[in-house]
Amino acid sequence: MKKIVIATQNKGKAKDFEALLAPLGYKVLTLLDVAQDLDVEETGVTFEENAILKAEAVSKVLGIPVISDDSGLEIDALNGEPGVYSARYAGAAKSDSANIDKVLEKMSGVPENGRTARFRCVLAVAAPNEKTETFSGSCEGIILSTPQGNNGFGYDPIFYVPAQSKAMAELLPHEKAAISHRGNALRELQQRMPKWLDEEKQS
Ligand SMILES: O=c1nc[nH]c2c1ncn2[C@H]1C[C@H](O)[C@@H](COP(=O)(O)OP(=O)(O)OP(=O)(O)O)O1
Ligand SMILES: [Mg+2]
Questions:
Q1: Closest ligand by atom to 69 CA
Q2: Which of 17, 18, 21, 167 has a 20 to 30 Å separation from 186 between CA atoms?
Q3: Catalytic pick from 70, 96, 101, 198?
Q4: Ligand 1 center to residue 57 CA distance, Å?
Q5: Which of 66, 3, 1 is nearest to 38 (CA)?
Q6: What ipTM is given for this predicted complex?
Q7: Where is the active site (predicted)?
Q8: Binding-site residue ranges for Mg(2+)
Q9: pLDDT, tens digit, for every residue of 177-200?
Q10: Buried b / exposed e across 179-193, counting CB within 10 Å, b at 16+?
Q11: Which one of the ligands is nearest to 88 CA?
């Protein structure tokens, strides 16, 4: 089976990537499997910058091609917050439930037609001696006023997907994969697969 390393410490992302890549015949490994303490500081101010920082740092340390994911939630009523700060919105401890509470508090009193938002995902593909490439995807939704559903991770319980008439956290992994920002970015990557990544398929 082909193996691919995703440069992430996030278990929720790992599950999303498994749902996306297992059907394509890839075994997904993450930093949780191969380099638990490899933590890259996210000093960029855009998803692209942070995705590139993570992919290049991890590819350099491991000496192999990797894909990184930098993603987050943009809420129109909050001028695009939490954006690139989504993981750290309620503090450095990176708590999903504290982040959700902070969003719900800031959005209290905002009527339904003003609760538009989107998830964004930028994937960066880096390899030793190759030019790093990025791919992006988004997914439109509405911020709920109470959490719904137990699947997924992060802000999924407060992100309503009109196209599915469900919260993201109510979708099954393959249903999320079909419509998510991460799925859309990965499909973009597949369309413009860097040759050297395609050739890298390990057995
Ligand atoms: O599908 C998603 N469903 C719900 N929430 C999501 C999703 N995708 C990103 N998000 C939120 C979670 C986290 O608060 C932030 C990502 O931050 P981000 O820095 O990219 O990831 P992270 O620090 O958790 O892991 P890592 O950097 O090791 O990949 O956006
Ligand atoms: Mg991060």
A1: 1
A2: 167
A3: 70
A4: 18
A5: 66
A6: 0.99
A7: 70
A8: 41, 70
A9: 999 999 999 999 999 887 767 655
A10: bbbbbbbbebbeeee
A11: 1
CATH tag for 2-198 (out of 1.10.760.10, 3.40.1160.10, 3.90.950.10, 1.20.120.1630): 3.90.950.10
Task: Work out which ligand 1 atom sits closest to the CA atom of 70.
Answer: 20
Cα 117 from Cα 103, distance rounded (Å): 12
Ligand 1 atom nearest to CA at 96? 14
Which ligand 1 atom sits nearest the alpha carbon of residue 87?
Answer: 14
84-105 b/e with 16+ CB inside 10 Å = b? bebbebbeeeeebeebbebbee
Dump pLDDT digits (tens) for 74-116.
999 999 999 999 999 999 999 999 999 999 999 999 999 999 9
Q: Does residue 96 carry a catalytic annotation?
A: no
Q: Which helix (H) or strand (E) holds 167?
A: strand 166-167
Any idea how long the chain is? 203
Tell me phi and psi for residue 183, to 5 degrees. -60, -45
Residues with CB under 6 A from ligand 1: 8-10, 13, 42, 69-73, 86-87, 99, 119, 152-156, 168, 180, 182
* pLDDT for residue 202 is more than 60: no
Q: Write out the binding residues for substrate.
A: 8-13, 71, 153-156, 176, 181-182
Distance between CA 195 and CA 203 in Å, rounded? 17
